Structures are given as C-alpha cells and as structure tokens.
Amino acid sequence: MPIDKELLDILACPKCKGELVLEEGDTGLICTKCKLKYPIEDDIPIMLIDEAIKIDE
Amino acid sequence: MLTVDFKKLNLDSGYRVLDAGCGGGRHLSEAFRYSNVTVVGLDLDREDVTKAKNTLRIMEYEGEGGKGPWGVFIGDVTSLPFCDESFDLVICSEVLEHVHDHKKAIAEIIRVLKPGRLLAVSVPRFLPERICWMLSTSYHTEPGGHVRIYKKWELVNLLESAGLKCISSGWAHALHSPYWWLKCLVGHKNDNFWLVKLYHKFLVWDIMKHPRITKILEKLLNPLISKSIVLYLRKGEQYET
User: Fold this and answer.
1) Interface residue A39 vs chain B (CB under 8 A)
2) What's the average model confidence in pLDDT over A16-25?
3) What does pTM read for this prediction?
C-alpha cells in the first residue's frame, strides 16, 4: 500500500526535519541532506534515526 | 477502551490527527471512524504498529472508517518525522511516563501541532501509580516500563511552560486500579493467578458489554482511584517553533 500523498507532504526527516523523497518502488524514504534512507517494511516506514541506512552520493 | 474523551476533542471533517505513541491503535481507530479525518499513528513498538495497521485495514475493508487517509509509522516521540504545525489534534495517551527525555517529547509534540489546536495527554494518576510502585519493584524497573510518576500539577506546569494552556481535565479507568494493585501484589506478570484471571474477565466483560452498573461505579470511583488522568490543552496562537 503506497503512502498517501497527503502524508508524504507532512513527512519530514526525524533528524533534520527536512524534506523526504519516496524511493522508487516504495522501499524507503530518503533525506538527501542527511544522506539517510528510512526503510519501509511491510508498508510501515521505520522513521528511526538509529535504524536509518547511510546512503552514498 | 478509550482513555481520552472524544467528546472534548472537537474533531471535525478535514482534521489531521496524530496519535503519538499509538500502541495497538485504540485511540487511532476511534479517530478513524470520523468522516474525512486523516489519522496518523506512531509508536516505537513494531508489533503494536503492525496491530494498529491491521486494525485500520480491517476497518477500512468493513466500511467502518470515515474514509480519510491514514498511515502508521515506527518512530520516536522525541524525534517526530513530521513537518512543523502538521496536525489539528495530537493524542498522547499513556506515553510520557515511559519517556526518559519527556521535555524533548513535549517540545516535539507542540512543534507538530497547529497553533490554537488541541493536545490530549493522559498519564497514570499519582496515588494509584504510587501504590503499584510500592507493591512491586519489577512493575516499574522492567525495560520500557514507567520511569516516573506525575503529580497532576507538575504535568500541567510542565506542559504550560512549554507553550500550552490546560483547558480541561478528566479521570479514566477507576475499575482498572484495583486490577493493577492485585497484579503488582501477586507479581505483575503472574496473569495465571486465579483472582487476576477473574478480575481480567470482569474488565473484558465491562469493555465488551458497557453495562450501566459499571459505568455508574466507575463514575463514582473515578474521583478517588482513577488509573489515569487526562489533560486537554490548547497550543497558543503565539507559539514559536
């Protein structure tokens, strides 16, 4: 189940409160500023800084 | 089982609601019944969030929802993953007593709440909770357990100094206090003790059937031994994030 557009608009990175981008395939939410990916598992985004995945440029 | 009184929340069509520390979704699912309301649940516990997700899905399938968008997230109330002033209502029920940095959690909740809108907070009430702590050490020392006991005035001061105005308060679940005292007395994980089992059956019966007699009994006992206190607070128009 994709994240509703309205919810995407209010979602923010829990670390910097900046914008998040939904990854293709709805597998994660990416903060380009922090270079972190918040994974989505079983349709549930895991918005925990400690569990975010570091991403390369 | 609801701790927060929805009649006091002025929940309206088009509202966006956050249940911060939603657990299995008891308040979230109630908010979801309202027409055209967006509901968002967040909790640290994966099992609880999955339960909340499944509950809302079933409600949607059965046509019990108000047809508003919804979403659930695993997250920490001390670092909320939402933009400033995103919500028309925030519910934070039986959460703050678990959070070490409760000032950070409160600041985050206020940040995501729109100015002039309501926050409903509930925590265990001082005396019934103190009795639980006295009867059982493991009740409050287990991981993820309660880290403090609030006096009502302390919590009101804490929230008001952070930018909220307490406009109303209430009590809830007086019939649950003796149950927890009993559990603490026999070991709070000892659910097989016959009296605990019997009392649990009674509480489930009460939740399912809503009989008049227990409603009256709870109303009479709430001022004395309610398990929870509930505060309803409004965010000032002038609050600066």
Assistant:
1) no
2) 94
3) 0.93
